[in-house]
């Protein structure tokens, strides 16, 4: 059984603060790279198609309303 003094004299470096900092920096950098990739993907593919779809929903005079039964005015 290890005594308290033996544990305090341990100089192997396990559980060092530097290990935690390095892992945190790597996770933050990878997360930022993933966010940048997702932003680029969405801004070049998803958002233009979504904008086009929404604009097509609100387009007046596209012939859709006039072709509906009972949509004639007058």
Assembly state of the chains shown = single chain
Number of strands: 0
**Residue-averaged pLDDT, rounded?**
76
Q: Which residues form runs of ≥5 with pLDDT under 50?
A: none
Radius of gyration: 31 Å
Beta-strand percentage range: under 5%
Largest sheet: none
- Helical amount among residues, as a percent range? 55-70%
What is the count of DSSP helices, taking H or I runs of 4+ residues? Answer: 2
Q: Cα distance, first to last residue? A: 97 Å
Shape label: rod-shaped
- H/E order of the elements? HH
The structure class reads mainly alpha
Description:
It is built from 2 helices and no strands. The chain is mainly alpha-helical. The chain has a domain at 16-57. It starts with a helix and ends in a 17-residue tail after the last helix. The mean pLDDT is 76.
Structural descriptors:
single chain; 74 residues; mainly alpha
Question: Brief description of this entry?
Answer:
The protein is mainly alpha-helical and 74 residues long. It has helices at residues 4-8, 17-57.
